[in-house]
Amino acid sequence: MSQTTASKRNPWSWVPTGYFAEGLPYVMITWVAATMFKYLGHDNTDITLWVGNITLVWSLKPLWAAFLEMFKTKKWIVVVMEFSMVGLLAALAFCLQLPSYFTVSIGILWLMAFASATHDICMDGTYITTLDKSSQAKFVGIQGMFWNVGRFFSSTVILLVAAYFGQSESSSWTIAWMVAAAVMAALAGYHMFFLPQGEVAQRPENFKQIYSTFFDAWADFFRKPQIWGMLAFVFLFRSGEGLLLGVGHLFLQAPLAEGGVGLTLVEKSIIDGGLSIIMALSGGLLGGLFISRYGLKKTLFTMAICLNVPNLTYVYLAYVASPDVQISLMTVTMMVVIEKFFYSFGFVANMLYMMQQISPGKYHMTHYAFCTALMNLVLWPTIAVSGYLSDKYGYLTFFVIVMFATIPSFFAAWFAPFPRSEKEGS
């Protein structure tokens, strides 16, 4: 198939599957693995320390993103990374039978995170170099929606597989990880034929050209107008999110005696997986439509409110949690899905800001990778420390700390610079 034909493909034929393939491994690494370790008896401190450190990989993307501009095509790299993740998912599945499974699985998760981060760079690069600005805005909600479909599969289907299949806990999780590997293999096979090539990379003639291109990408990034103000927004807009990401779902499955909600694996898969994802999909789609109608600049502070204030639902759950009384599943469901809906609604603003205000230019793909890396950098220390804080101070105090941690997000949204007109082309 020619590149011209591929580049003209209807975005519906590859944007949904592409972002499903982004969401699946990310959630397997950062959420499913943590869930598995919790049910296998590990404490919050160990889980969030190691998972939080693994999230650092997504923040290191700028170290190799510029080189990806120069070799092969974006499609080639995407497909290679997807097949690599197939092998790593299968390897993790079988290592669970080993006595030292925790150490081995952490090592595999590190490698998988590198493959996932590289995949994200080139899939995002395909998106922003294949679609014009109008299409980017139109499909940003679809992009987020199908990233969440990947999350739905990982957090719901995988957990249900682990709950109902296998002879023991370890064999159940082995089957679950193998199912994830099979689905990733199907996505990789599909993308071999249906993913556009993306912008064709310029081939370097020698090492000096590689060296100069790499540093030129960095220099060009910091020459952008009002770059420090824009980077402050990217870094601070999700200031409280890492703490909630690290412990929120562990709190839901923690035993009543520990101050948790005490959900079973099936209950967690349905409430914090299936039902909350449906609300998140709706939130992402409506958030994109809301910004498309009223403009990003006018709605940014409203989006910050939507992103952060619903974290109060976890403060409420921790307040009413009691070792003697099981919170009703209806109450838990309502609190969780409210938080997920408004988080997804507000998060769309973050992605569009990076895509339209910061990354356009000579190195569009690389600079967008820089943005997403910095955005994730704040998650690294907050996720890593979240388990320690919850173990030390208890869940109620911890979720109050989360609310204080969201304050920088409001300042970031209020003072965010807009050097590019919203009508300006990318």
Corresponding CATH architecture: Up-down Bundle
Give the domain tally. Answer: 1
Secondary structure: number of strands = 0
Which value, in Å, is the CA radius of gyration? 21 Å
| CATH level-3 fold name | Growth Hormone, Chain: A
Estimate percent helicity.
over 70%
Low-confidence stretches: 1-6
User: SSE order, as H and E?
Assistant: HHHHHHHHHHHHHHHHHHHH
Mean pLDDT: 88
Structural notes for this entry:
The structure is a single chain. The chain is mostly helical and 426 residues long. The protein has a single domain (13-197, 224-415), classed as Up-down Bundle (Growth Hormone, Chain: A). 78% of the residues lie in helices and 0% in strands. It is built from 20 helices and no strands. It has helices at residues 3-7, 15-39, 44-54, 56-59, 62-68, 74-95, 101-130, 133-164, 169-194, 207-222, 227-236, 241-253, 265-294, 296-308, 312-320, 329-358, 364-377, 379-393, 395-405, 407-415. Helix 2 (15-39) crosses helix 12 (241-253), helix 7 (101-130) crosses helix 17 (364-377) and helix 13 packs antiparallel against helix 14 (296-308). The two termini are 27 Å apart. 51% of the residues are buried.
Give a short summary of the structure.
This protein is mainly α.
